[in-house]
From TrEMBL:
Domain of life: Bacteria
Alphabetical UniProt keywords: Signal
Source species: Fodinibius salipaludis
Lineage, highest ranks first: Bacteria, Pseudomonadati, Balneolota, Balneolia, Balneolales
Sections of the chain in a coiled coil: none
Listed name of the protein: Alpha-amylase
Record-annotated Glycosyl hydrolase family 13 catalytic domain positions: 66-373
Amino acid sequence: MKNFKNTKTFFNLFLLLVIFVFSSACSQQSKSQTNQLTTEASEFQHPEWAKNATIYEVNVRQYTPEGTFDAFEEHIPRLKKMGIEVLWLMPIHPIGEKNRKGKLGSYYSIKDYKAVNSEFGTIQDLKELVKTAHENDMKVILDWVANHTAWDHIWTKKHPGWYTKDENGNFQPPIEDWSDVIELDFDNHEMRDAMVNAMEFWVKEANIDGYRADYAMDVPTEFWNRAREELDQIKPVFMLAEAEQSDHHNKAFDMSYAWKFHELTNEIAHDSAGPKDIDQYMAWEDSTFPNHAYRMYFTSNHDENSWNGTAVERYGPALKAMAVLTSTIDGMPLVYSGQETRINKRLEFFQRDTIRWEGSELDEFYTKLLQLNQNNSALWNGKAGGDFVRVNTNNKNEIYAYKRVKNNNEVFVLLNLSDQKQTVTLKDFPNTTYTDVFSESNLEIGEEPIDMDPWGYRVLKK
């Protein structure tokens, strides 16, 4: 019995030693992987110009009666004055004719990645647009649809093996409702090579400054990583992902959509969410994305406008408050074509539907807001901007107050997120003199109560 007991003890000790060594190895491997991801994230470099950029989505077809690059180009100085730096052009490529939706088709049903839709003009016209933008210290990024093409894309004849197939060996849409497009197969590395080559083409040929990646979450992240690496060898580019995926920011993308926050702002406008929900969102974002990640905040874009309603329609009297919120928290604000003219029309997606450029107080409103975003370092993007600091008030269910602070720059925002008047008292807030961004008057904020109209807002700077 004694010998058996000793043997058993020895075996148990040996087993514990094996477990310890194995666990240590796994721990070191996990630690190594974590360190690798952290290193990748910490080494990510944005283009220098992006630190205080704002972005504007251009719907070329609907922007002017002509619907051309040339006609839009005349608006560039106005947009520069408004405080815009990045022009995101919706897809500029020829549109497929097979299974086309509507008369003119969807911009996102692409027939040739290396050509320009004649509806908009020529490659030379695009080059002139980019040149004018650069002369105005602005940048141009193109919408890039990598996940799918039109049914009659040039690749369908030359390289049918580059597409996924259904059980009968036929091309197939990625989603049933997307009947005008067919899905590419990213397991095919020849296709990946051709895709990267096409992306390089526009950087070299037209001197564009980057891409907005459509439906980015359904394309393998390693493809985007490779594309970014090869594009950066031509010039430092800016990449925006239509996705909300943390690992996109490790190597490939500068910025991603803040879709969850957009949904939250719509809920706030309909009294189904409030300040505590914003705090919960901010905590989620801080814990989900690397600290260098840029996030894009918006009240509208082409999808929202055409399919879910205009900003005026969805937000109603809360529109300006939501625009202030999305322009002053920790991210880059987006303005969609026509928002500055209080567009209250769902633009047609598959045919001409020209924006009516009528005077609106929103033009001056967005100008003051976006110029502040560009010029006050407290509101710059990512780590270039100031810390987000919540300010406590007596109306925690209706009032959302916060500061952004960077060195000697500070922006203080006060929002009434309700349809009732509120009298606000700030808690533990020292008397401070600010300049009101919209009235341009000086105000002392501190112990005295502040009256706020329904959906009212104050944007103060120093």
